[in-house]
Amino acid sequence: MKFKLYILFYLILFLVRRDHRKSKSHLDRVKYRRLKLLLRHLKSSPFYKHYASQNSLEAFPVMKKELFMQNFNDINTRGIKKADALKLALEAEEIRDFSKTLNGIIVGLSTGTSGNKGLFLVGEKERAKWVAAIIHRVIGIKIRPKKIAFFLRANSKLYESANSRLLQFNFFDLMNDHDSNFKRLITLNADILVAQPSALLKIALSFTESKKTPTFEKVISVAEVLNDTDRVYLEKVFKLTLSEVYQCTEGFLACSCKYGKLHFNEDYLIIEKEYIDKEHKRYFPVITDLYREIQPIIRYKLDDILVEGGVCKCGSRFEVIDRIEGRADDIIRLTDKLGKMTDIFPDYFSRAITIASDEITDYILSQTDKNLLEIYINNGSEMNQQKVKDNITELLSKFNIGPVEIHFTSKKATDQHGKLRRITNEYYKRVQDNRNR
Ligand SMILES: [Zn+2]
Q1: Which is more confidently placed, 242 or 96?
Q2: What residues flank ion ligand 1 with Cβ within 5 A?
């Protein structure tokens, strides 16, 4: 009961405050007040208490996942040991039962791109706030009960906790066979479908092949980069504007508005930007969550390459993300004619491939060696391959890159966690892994 009251409390708070409509200075004042409360709370974190006494966010170190995990025991404010949390999370994955908690605190496990697992802790109040924010910003508030089909690699009490008379979450395990998942989805007749783009693509294909008509009122893309080609295809099959939620271990960060633009949840997040390409507005976000108290997220740097957006027509003042381009280790690194290492962002390659032909709706490009790019395209006719090759050669010449081999493959690969990443750098990952060994 207490949990549902918390949800109601946050929901009312969001509805009454309407922070997204207020001026920037108002937002800054709200955040500053909240930050002061958080700093007071951080005195229970052995890792952060020293920084908290300095009363300024700038005093805190920028946190990276490795450092965060190394200091897990000292960062959290409840004295939870990493070994205990990890044991609980791994057992849950093993037996696919995600209902257990550590004294009411949910432990979640995320797969890192470089194989390092992340562990997250979420308390009851934090969970309630998450549910309220999802209802307020993604699902919408309506009296009619809604069925939500949620495709996930691993369920979590976080999602189940949102179950109520008005919202029924149905978990679909991505580890299960796709055909049986699809059959169940049809029987369920859900109002809202939530899944990562690669799963949405499979579902869309099943709808097309079975000649069934999808009737979802909302389809929400989560967890992977959603590129324009996939968005167009999915919107055509589902006959709606796709909603997008940018969420990771570090919380519910942003969601799309009615114009399809992603807005950061700036009423409870402080976003700092570490620019990597200021001219083209690319940056890594460094986030501080003002409400996470059990496992504080302070100046936490994410590996995602974001592109700044401008002002949005919807009227929300919350920071706009034009697009999420990929992760830091998806950047293609090649040597230019002067021997200098040059970074080329994933987006350039996506564009070079997709503009080659309308027949190309599915593709993967991976740098597999120092000067080698391997490409998969769904319609690999000689003509399409040649066009793709020409576009990429032209792109590389703009960056003054030296000789690069381009190979086509008929094999479509996903990463080690089954996630679809259209542009990846396997070579660089290998080099880094060897270095870390
Ligand atoms: Zn907007």
Answers
A1: 242
A2: 257, 259, 261, 312, 314, 316
